[in-house]
Amino acid sequence: MPSEDPHAPGNPEADSPAAHPRRTFIAASAVSGAVAVAGPALLGAAPAAAGAGASSSRVSLTVNGTRRTVTVDNRTSLLDLLREHFGLIGTKKGCDAGACGACTVLVDGRRVNGCLTLAVRLEGAQVTTIEGLSPGDTGALHPLQQAFIDQDAFQCGYCTPGQIMSGLGCIEEGRTGSPAEIREAMSGNLCRCGCYVKIVKAIQQAGS
User: CA quadruple 70, 72, 75, 81: dihedral positive or negative?
Assistant: First the structure.
């Protein structure tokens, strides 16, 4: 009587050509799994340390009127330099891909996305963040900050520092001639709460 096990030796089904691809697949899977678990050790290669070979540079720049010198990884963004090295957390990390404008700051008077700007390329630059807008130690608000309050131009407030810094750049560029011009100039700054109309009014107020 033939064996009931279809894979038992001597069974016609076990010796059929259709059975061999299955065996080959199982054997190949076992070998692949062993290689994946063993990793570089099985292949005789030493595991590479994460970020091995990354170099650092020394950069000096002026942030909100204060000269700062720091050594940073060459891949460090201006956003991470401000937040993680200088403790200036008013500049927000939103998308970290240059799409939302939450990290907008002024570099030499021009608007930039901090997340897309390498810190090591800012040697000698003048950087202004939201913390640098209030004059001296008086505690007085910048006219644009006050305008945002007057116009109720924010809800959650997360994008507000970037909106204000971009709005300041918009004013300094002379792009406040009409609501349409302001909207176009501010198109890189997103507000998930939808305060666009009031943001435009705030910029008009401060720029008039």
Answer: negative
Give the SS3 label for residue 73: strand
What span, in angstroms and rounded, lies between the C-alpha atoms of 3 and 109?
A: 86
Q: Name 21's Cβ contacts closer than 8 Å, sequence gap at least 6.
A: none
Helix, strand, coil proportions of the chain in percent (round to 5)? 40, 15, 45
Q: Give the C-alpha distances (Å, rounded to integers) separating 99 from 114, 121, 171, 191.
A: 11, 21, 21, 12
pLDDT digits (tens, 9 = 90+) for 153-183: 999 999 999 999 999 999 999 999 999 999 9
Tens of pLDDT, residues 111-148: 999 999 999 999 999 999 999 998 666 778 999 999 99
Q: What is the dihedral of CA 125, 167, 81, 135, to 10 degrees?
A: 70
Question: What is the rounded radius of gyration, in angstroms, for the C-alpha atoms of the chain?
Answer: 30
Q: Is 127 helix (H, G, I), strand (E, B) or coil?
A: strand
